[in-house]
């Protein structure tokens, strides 16, 4: 663990028995005592809080901040309302996907951008390089990295209850918004390291966030073109290997897979040629030189129950 960066909640993770590992140069808890299976089921049934403070948090200032952001990502950033956020993608000049991110238009006249820790250096270089290009052309835009603690709440019942203004003003964090996990809040890095205990009232898992279902050569529209994205369920292990349609053709590729504790079977995601994408289609997935039967399944595998701000 020597030389690894630490989040503001590092001491809290250690106090709660977190098994700390190296994730993208950060000391992060891989799991707590109950293990991954129990933590997953707890989150599905109740609620868990994730420390994602290792993610890159960037503030974008200046009157040309929207022009700057829209030159890098897909999505209509100009139409975001104050304190409204959107999931988006950094794209290359060729339209390839570089990383996913969340952009929030704050009521404090700046954009708040959260992107993945594993792509931190690449994302920062991309944003800084574009900012310098626009500045050289006379644009008003500048960047600032935020060192706030960042927390993600994951639960099928994730929501912020209505509170009277005095109680709302006393909440531990000043910003809340939708994220990939459900809801997210950030607070100064000087916040007491044990305060999440009072929110959770028990130990909960905290795992490093991993982004994943895209590559530099894939485009943002790939799922709607000749290679639709699908979700096969498998009767065996799964991995980043070709998926095969009988008898010997190779119609696609599995991008990720893992066991599903809720469904008690293995699940995966990948891309296949359109003629093999119909729900119920039987495929063979090659895993460690062995063929495993798989069935194309409608996604999401587990029904979602999102709370939205609409």
Tags for this entry?
310 residues; alpha+beta; Gyrase A, domain 2; Alpha-Beta Plaits; Elongation Factor Tu (Ef-tu), domain 3; 3 domains; 6-stranded antiparallel β-barrel; 5-stranded antiparallel β-sheet; Aminomethyltransferase, mitochondrial
Summarize the structure.
It contains 6 helices and 18 strands.
How does this structure look, described?
The glycine cleavage system is composed of four proteins: P, T, L and H. One of its GO terms (molecular function) is aminomethyltransferase activity. Pfam families: GCV_T, GCV_T_C. The protein has 310 residues and is an alpha+beta fold. The model is unreliable at 171-212, 223-227 and 236-241 (pLDDT under 50). The chain is globular, with a radius of gyration of 21 Å. It has 3 domains: 5-53 and 148-200, Probable tRNA modification gtpase trme, domain 1 (Gyrase A, domain 2); 56-145, Alpha-Beta Plaits; 222-297, Beta Barrel (Elongation Factor Tu (Ef-tu), domain 3), CATH 2.40.30.110. The chain contains 6 helices and 18 strands.
